[in-house]
Amino acid sequence: MENNNTLPTTLLVGLLFAGGVYALAVLEYWSVAGRLAWARPVRLALKLLAREEIKPRQRDAVFYETAPVLLLAAGTLAAAVLPWSASTPLLSLATGALFVNAAFAYAMVALVLGGWSSNGAYAMIGGWRFLGQLLAYSMPMVMALTATVMRAESMVPVQIVLSQRGLWNIVYQPVGFGLFYLAALALAFLPPFDLPVAAGELAGGAWADFTGARRLVLRLGRLSLVMSLAVTITVFYLGGWQGPGLPGVVWTLLKTLLVAASFFGVGHYVSRVRYDLLLEWSWKYATPAALLNILWVGILLLL
Amino acid sequence: MNALQLFFLAGFGLAAVWFGWRVFRTHSMVRSAMSLLACMVALGAMFLVLQAEFLGVLQIMMMAAEMSIMAFFMMMFMMDPGGLGNMNMTHQQKPATALSAAVAALLLALLLSTNWPAPLAQVPTATQQNHDLGIELMTRSMMIFETAGTTILVAMIAAAATALVYPPQPD
């Protein structure tokens, strides 16, 4: 483990991440309402902070408090190992690609805990649905990442970016990119795959019984998750900081915001996927496609 | 191993024991499974303190999904549908206590009587560990892992197949 977390780097990464999350909050509203309302996230945050906290009477006290914080932690932890430029990963782990997955796995734990602990039927169904969704997205996601690791012959995110010097992974392994992109949507329970919190169906699902500040932390956690996933796609498939002219950090930010905007755009135009279909497609098509992608990359590497 | 490492190793070890204890001190399947998850994460953190980066991160990653799925299955197949009910997690307490004490004593005796080799002066770097593990898995241990993996897969498919109802019944 080597550390790059000098104060300027930490501040830079923190600011970029926080700014990105803010921009995402604006973009999310844009995908719903069709206009950019720059002050809205602040107003919404203040409103949620001031609102009365209504807690279910027979909740599980420990898990109810843990779930929002855990979701935020899951969303932000990956940011520590993801590089915005060659010198900006806060923590350069030799198992970076695996660490990113490990951090994201706890988003599921947070939602299951949140849904279960609030002791309401809708919330619990939402939480368990996300567990089912995990079965659908986790295998394609890990196997797609494996293929990028194969090409770089390293799990260090910086090395994975450097391996895309000549050709971005989106061109080198388009199937892997497609799978990772869809899996990322499912992981962040964004609209086509938003069954765990399904608006209009489960009364808010896994986070139906969270109000006020806890609701705010959950929303922040979800946006951080989307942000981390967008950075992950940029780093693993879109050549990271590489690009002509502009400084690397700017390229990463631009690509990240573009990916995030496309997430929200997709959600706006595609209808919700039923979760038995999701599981069926995952096992029948996505997992075999991920294996074929590994074979494809293996052949390209041996050529 | 320096003092700081020892401190964190002991800290995570105690946390693991505490959460392991909590597994049996609750009356709910989900609380129990989540305590077990916390216990496993503490074990993963111990791997990280011992500079076994791959094993630590892998442990922390795998256990999140495994323990949640376990909680789900325990609720499905045992008599506690919501996971919130008052289920006694301990059975046959006296024989179980005696057996646990005996096993603990045996393990301690084994630990203390084994002539452990001296610890490595220099731990291989994390990158080197990944490389060595890959070589190990792809050469000497390949047959073992492939056999175990296929066996587990067959068991999972068989379990799913026996749970299905044929011919499909209308709901």
**Strand order across the largest sheet of chain A:** 1-2
Structural class of chain A: mainly alpha
- The total count of helices of chain B amounts to 6
Instruction: Work out the helix count of chain A.
Output: 11
What's the order of the H and E elements of chain B?
A: HHHHHH
Number of beta strands of chain B:
0
Count every beta strand of chain A, where a strand is a DSSP E run of 2 or more residues.
2
> Low-confidence stretches of chain B at least 5 residues in length (pLDDT < 50)?
none
Distance between the termini of chain A: 33 Å
Envelope shape of chain A: globular
Helix content of chain B: over 70%
Question: Low-confidence parts of chain A lasting 5 or more residues at pLDDT below 50?
Answer: none
Could you report the average pLDDT of chain B, rounded to the nearest whole number?
86
Beta percentage of chain B is under 5%
Q: Structural class of the helices, strands and pairings of chain B?
A: mainly alpha
Please tell me about this protein's structure:
The complex is a heterodimer of chains A (303) and B (171). Chain A is mainly α. Chain A is 69% helix and 1% strand. Chain A has a two-stranded antiparallel sheet. In chain A, helix 3 runs antiparallel to helix 4 (96-117), helix 3 (61-77) runs parallel beside helix 9 (212-237) and helix 8 runs antiparallel to helix 9 (212-237). Chain A is globular. The model of chain A has no long low-confidence stretch (mean pLDDT 88). With 171 residues, chain B is an all-alpha fold. Chain B has a domain at 1-82. The interface between A and B is medium-sized, with 28 and 25 residues.
Give the secondary structure arrangement, pairings included.
The complex is a heterodimer of chains A (303) and B (171).
Chain A (H helix, E strand, L loop, with lengths): L1 E2 L3 H27 L6 H11 L10 H17 L13 E2 L3 H22 L3 H32 L4 H6 L6 H4 L1 H14 L24 H26 L10 H22 L5 H28 L1
Antiparallel strand pairs in A: 1-2
Helix pairs in contact in A: 1-9, 1-10, 2-9, 3-4, 3-9, 4-5, 5-8, 5-11, 8-9, 9-10
Chain B lengths: L2 H22 L4 H21 L3 H25 L15 H21 L12 H13 L3 H22 L8
Main location (chain B): membrane
Keywords (chain B): Cell membrane, Membrane, NAD, Quinone, Transmembrane, Transmembrane helix
GO molecular function (chain B): NADH dehydrogenase (ubiquinone) activity; quinone binding
